[in-house]
Amino acid sequence: MDSGAIVHIDYDLYEGEAERLIETTREEVAKEHEMHEEGRTYEPLVTVIGDGRLIAGFESSLTEAEADKDYEVDIEPADAYGERDASLVETIGQNVLMRSVRDPNMLAIGAPVEIGGRQGILQFLSAGRARIDYNHPLAGSTLRYKYRIVKVVEDRKEKVETLLNMNTGRDDFEIEFKKDDLTVTLPDTIAYDQNWSYAKFSLVRTLRDHIGVGTIVFREVHEPRAIEEEE
Question: N or C end: fewer C-beta atoms under 10 angstroms in the chain?
Fold first, then answer.
């Protein structure tokens, strides 16, 4: 698959040695492993090949994959989430832990905690001390991906719509091309999205890198509010 291709991928992610399912986009697989989440929409992952959104080993496999074929690949820690680092396991005072959590009643061994802006796992709590593991939960694990590229986005307008959705989670933009120049009409409610300013600059780079557009215009339209007539 070429770098820059926008694809939809169905995949199952396992902890390789234990064959423990970690994540899946396929509802039937989740049910088979008794991991089904009610209310969740199971759908393919959408990504840009070679864009660095995925772990290195998975990205590398995708560059050699073809659409509509099933693949299985084992990824060593070095190309996944790295080896475990003993220096990232730290002991802190219980009082520091209690000040850092919103609800101490939710604390449990193995539960995620955030200390000073760092995400970790609570490993031990006793005698006024707490041990926090700041390694990624999958550090040191060999991962196994079973996947299939179920769709390659080919249409230029659909590519733009897909990238907009990937970066904002919205699908209410209007897209217009004039040759290679692109105009994106924004939904008026996007003014309330605090992440839009950052997403916009990221989108400009992504659109130019992967679609080859020329001038990009983000167009705001604010319609007048209708005034109801008094009876």
Answer: C
